[in-house]
């Protein structure tokens, strides 16, 4: 059979007759042939690699989002890779440079620490890029985000409705766009309710151990200064808070009502099931990949940047329900 027929089989198998495909597959198997993907990419001018640069990987939420992205990418014959910037712009720059050198299919950015020079490089090299949740809208790139201002408002309003009058937002880091938006929404809800106070309480990280440490610090203030409602920046913090408080004899939710954020699986499975703000990671991940493929297929210079905002949902469980 001709070289052209074999080439069709390797690159566009749907154009080859079934009987011919079986013969070529048998020949490939007998020869032990392994396709050189790097060489194919050089000839084609681009790879099928998609990179997702996440903000953090210790939060199961990002793992579930990445899983949804990977499954959607596979349907488009794309190879999916995940990296973590860990708040280090230099490290993120290296990831971006690597993708550019490999002529990657596209980039999903969620770290929130991307340098302007890297954005400029992506635009100049025409690397399809989607901003995922951690950035202000940019007219050069499509984006998908969750309305964290609404989520923060939902969380604080729920605590107020449960009778809380001293509310603390644990895990605040106003340098992180999502957390600043949650704080803004929560403060607005408390202010609108009237008769309640709102406080920001920062933590060095957003983990279970950090939640435990925050609970100890709040208890050290003494009973008169303890809040009766806590909005945790994520579910890991909320789990740590609940664990530490219950071990020290603080009743949840009778003494302090607690609500988290993300609605990870562990929140519902905690010893006291934790209320949370649900961020729909399945549709979030799918939408990010769809935006990326749309961007890649759009002719250079053609309009079509999209900014999609997904609304979160309040999930009420035992950790906050007093009424």
Structure description:
With 323 residues, the protein is of the alpha/beta class. It folds into 3 domains: 3-35, no CATH class; 45-147 and 282-311, Rossmann fold (3-Layer(aba) Sandwich); 148-279, Response regulator (Rossmann fold, 3-Layer(aba) Sandwich), CATH 3.40.50. 46% of the residues lie in helices and 16% in strands. The chain is built from 12 helices and 12 strands. The strands form 3 sheets. It has a 6-stranded parallel sheet, sandwiched between helices. It has a 4-stranded parallel sheet with strand order 7-6-8-9. Helix 4 crosses helix 12 (281-297), helix 7 packs parallel to helix 8 (177-193) and helix 9 (208-219) crosses helix 10 (235-247). The N and C termini lie far apart (76 Å). Residues 36-45 have low confidence and may be disordered. One of its GO terms (molecular function) is transcription cis-regulatory region binding. This is LacI family transcriptional regulator. InterPro entries: HTH_LacI, LacI/GalR-like_sensor, Lambda_DNA-bd_dom_sf, Peripla_BP_I. Keywords: DNA-binding, Transcription, Transcription regulation. Residues 1-44 form the HTH lacI-type domain.
How would you summarize what this structure contains?
The protein is an alpha/beta fold. It is built from 12 helices and 12 strands. Strand 8 (about 230), helix 10 (about 235-245) and strand 9 (about 255-260) form a beta-alpha-beta unit.
């Amino acid at each position: 059979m001709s070289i052209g027929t074999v080439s069709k089989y390797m690159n566009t198998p749907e154009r080859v007759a079934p009987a011919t495909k079986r013969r070529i597959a048998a020949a490939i198997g007998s020869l032990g042939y392994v396709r050189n993907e790097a060489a194919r990419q050089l000839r084609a001018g681009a790879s099928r690699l998609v990179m997702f640069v996440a903000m953090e990987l210790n939060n199961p939420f990002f793992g579930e989002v990445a899983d949804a992205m990977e499954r959607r990418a596979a349907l488009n014959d794309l190879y999916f890779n995940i990296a973590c910037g860990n708040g280090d712009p230099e490290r993120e720059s290296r990831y971006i440079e690597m993708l550019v050198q490999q002529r990657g299919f596209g980039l999903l950015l969620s770290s929130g620490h991307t340098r302007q020079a890297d954005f400029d490089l992506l635009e100049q090299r025409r690397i399809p890029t989607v901003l995922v949740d951690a950035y202000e809208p940019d007219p050069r790139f499509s984006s998908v985000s969750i309305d964290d201002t609404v989520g923060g408002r939902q969380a604080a309003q729920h605590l107020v409705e449960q009778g809380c009058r001293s509310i603390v937002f644990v895990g605040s880091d106003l340098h992180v766009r999502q957390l600043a938006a949650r704080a803004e929404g929560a403060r607005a809800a408390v202010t609108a309710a009237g008769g309640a106070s709102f406080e920001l309480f920062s933590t060095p990280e957003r983990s279970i151990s950090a939640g435990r440490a925050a609970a100890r610090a709040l208890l050290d203030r003494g009973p008169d200064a303890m809040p009766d409602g806590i909005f945790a920046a994520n579910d890991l913090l909320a789990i740590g808070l609940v664990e530490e408080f219950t071990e020290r004899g603080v009743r949840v939710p009778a003494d302090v009502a607690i609500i988290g954020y993300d609605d990870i699986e562990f929140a519902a499975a905690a010893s006291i099931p934790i209320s949370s703000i649900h961020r729909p990671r399945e549709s979030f991940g799918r939408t990010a990949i769809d935006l990326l493929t749309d961007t890649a297929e759009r002719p250079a210079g053609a309009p079509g940047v999209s900014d999609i905002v997904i609304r979160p949902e309040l999930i009420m469980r035992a950790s906050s329900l007093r009424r």
